[in-house]
Amino acid sequence: MTSKSTYNLIIVGGGPIGLATAFHYKKKNQNASVLIVEKAYVHNQSGSSNGQTRQFRYQYAEKYMTELAYATESYWKELEDFHGDKLINRVGSLWFGEGDAEGSEGQIGPAMENLDELNLPYEKLTNKEIEDRFGFTGLGESEVGLFQPNGGTINVVETIEVLKNLCMDFDVEILEYNEINVIDSTGVHVDNIHIRAEKIVVTAGANSKKLIGPMLNTVVWNLASIHYKVKYESFDLPSWFYFSEQIRYDDKLVEGGFYYGFEKINLEGEWYFRICPAFSSQIETDLNENIVMPLQADVDMTTNWVKKHLGFVSPVPEFISLGQVSLPRESSKKLYLDYTDSSQRIVVCSSGWNFKFIPLLGYIIAMEVLGERHGFDISPFALSTLLQASEGKTTSTRKLPF
Ligand code: BEZ
Questions:
Q1: pLDDT tens-digit profile of 134-187?
Q2: Which of 78, 128, 299, 401 places its Cα 20 to 30 Å from the Cα of 389?
Q3: DSSP state, 229?
């Protein structure tokens, strides 16, 4: 089944963070043996890397996240150099809406303060400027925006392709269609076969919780991805995110408040915008593989928003699909990256809107398991502290080098 019974490193989950970890680990330590075990196949559509695009941005309500996004740039550049072409389309990132509305991605007001403090470029925009320049309609007097020119759209398919090719160049062994059911401090169990490892990294997305347990304090958002046909072909948009208050009636979401979209893409010969709700009416404690399509209510709320704010698209939802994204339950956590055990043999990295950080996360995890300095503070990403305290756990508290 595998070429060895013992590896220096076993990575559970062949998603982009797992691939990036294997690449950085082998780059530092070419003679080491690395095994990636993937439940399905590399770049399947059932996990959190489904679809073709993700947003790249600097603006965050937390300064350390803006610093992390900025620090990721050189790691993206390295991947783009290997690829021979860009992986991020720098169309810019527009954030607009109510400055104090807070979603899981952040808040406009504090994000502006961080960009100011770190001296990163952006433009402040009024509702009228956003309407005139980008063509949105029906924005309220109190709505504001920021346009950050370094932001843009990440090509998910090509990013995974380049990472997979790098892993193959470095002789990383990839075992697909095999599920790990148990991890212990000596290795992993695949179909009752024990494979030993010095270190284990768990990057299995929403499946990680089954292996790590409640220390990974996460929920799964079942998210809609929708496309709307562009009415005027000359029209285009940057990557964008809209913020407003959510409205609930009898505990049911009737206005989701948060929407996002990308520049236009050609699907089957026609131009479309991918426009998605950044909320879910179907949040589950664990991954539910029986859910295969988003709730119609979320699609309807998005279409109503499109009718009100995007006159240049046809408000008919098409090419609808589901993404199942694991997110930290604690709103203060942006992602988890931590050891699960006091002997520091097992690292987990899971949950959050992480695609933009993938090459850097791979580097940080690889350096952690190699026991080498990486200079980044991972303490904001520690596993659930209450559960750790009961197990007498400690975490690394290195500082950012900025
Ligand atoms: C983000 O930039 O983190 C993000 C963008 C769209 C949806 C959710 C998150």
A1: 999 999 999 999 999 999 999 999 999 999 999 999 999 999 999 998 999 899
A2: 401
A3: E
Cα of 353 from ligand 1 centre, angstroms:
6
Residue with CA closest to ligand 1 atom 7: 278
Task: Count the neighbouring beta carbons within 10 Å of the beta carbon of residue 305.
Answer: 21
Instruction: Let me know: does 40 contact 48? Beta carbons within 8 Å.
Output: no
Q: What is the pLDDT of residues 290-346, one digit of tens each?
A: 999 999 999 999 999 999 999 999 999 999 999 999 999 988 899 999 999 999 999
Ligand 1 center to 260 CA (angstroms): 7
Calculate how far, in angstroms, residue 26's C-alpha sits from the geometric centre of ligand 1.
Answer: 30
What residue ranges line ligand 1, CB within 6 angstroms? Answer: 55, 57, 105, 241, 260, 278, 353
Ligand 1 atom with minimal separation from the 258 CA: 7
Beta strand spans in 42-172 (E): 53-56, 88-89, 93-98, 123-126, 143-148, 152-155
In sequence order, the 6+-apart residues with CB closer than 8 A to the CB of 191 are 1, 178
| DSSP designation for 187 | E
Choosing from 68, 353, 361 the residue with most ligand 1 atoms within 8 A of its CB, the one to mutate for a pocket test is 353
Is the pLDDT at 227 greater than 60, yes or no?
yes
What angle in degrees, to the nearest 10, is found between the helix axes of 358-370 and 63-83? 100
Q: What is the pLDDT of residues 260-291, one digit of tens each?
A: 999 999 999 999 999 999 999 999 999 998 99
Give residue 343's region: left, alpha or beta (phi > 0; psi -120 to 50). alpha
Q: Decide: helix, strand or coil at residue 364.
A: helix
Of all atoms in ligand 1, which is nearest to the CA of residue 276? 7
The first and second tokens of residue 349, run together, are 């990295």
| Buried/exposed 9-33: b ≥16 CB within 10 Å, e otherwise | bbbbbbbbbbbbbbbbbbeebeebb
Enumerate the H helices of 257-318 as residue ranges. Answer: 296-309
For 298, phi and psi rounded to 5 degrees?
Answer: -70, -35
The backbone torsions φ and ψ at residue 104, rounded to the nearest 5 degrees and listed phi first, read: -70, -15
Non-local CB neighbours of 184 within 8 Å, separated by 6+ positions = none
